[in-house]
Amino acid sequence: MEFKQLNIIPEISDLKRSMEIAKKYNCGFEYQDFFIPDILDNESKIKELTNTYLSNKLNYSTFHGAFFDVTIFSDDSMIKKVSDYRVTQSLQIANKLGSMGIVFHTNYISNFNIQSYRNNWVKRNCEYWKEKLHEFPEIEIYIENMFDDTPDLLAELGREMEDEPRFGICFDYAHAHAFGDETKIDEWVEKLAPYVKHIHINDNNFEADLHLPVGDGKIDWDKFKINYEKYMCDASVLIEHKNNDNIEKSLDFLKKL
Question: What is the longest distance spanned by two Cα atoms in the chain?
Fold first, then answer.
């Protein structure tokens, strides 16, 4: 299977092997150390990790931003303030690493179906991400489905942000199977595809976000291949494991697909 751009997560404890895998399969990196609160609270650790990655840099990278308790659309001004702090911190680190795109999560309460809450989520996200795109003109911003049970709100955000060429959706294909309805995956693809710029893949049993190697769970990867090639072939793809063995297993599976 061919991808426009394929990324892996570097395993910091065995970075040499991560580099070897990336070169063997022509992959970039997605940095996923910096959403951890304990690291974000430790400037010396941020500097250490940043310098390590800059010394082992590939030509292409993406970055996963902070998402634990990040609620930039909150009615609570203090929660909104600290959420903005974490987002800005993430963007600054991603810029230092030269990452092309950064991923944040939707983070809304999926079964809180009060219409005013859902409308405010779309409106406030539009306002906020437009500001961040203006503030950080060197990077693309992608919003990822997490516990979303349908693609509807994320698709609405994508439509509202169509005039921003550096904004897009990170479609977590595994999350859609674990937290949505796996029998409606075609609906997810068709609604989100016009706005998808980045995709996360791993495998699961449709019940939990297990992060299994691709091919080790229940996801239909022949269908993914069809959907990717038909609807999302311009999107970059991350194999979302933090273990080199699982990464290679997934890469070999996709190569044969």
Answer: 51
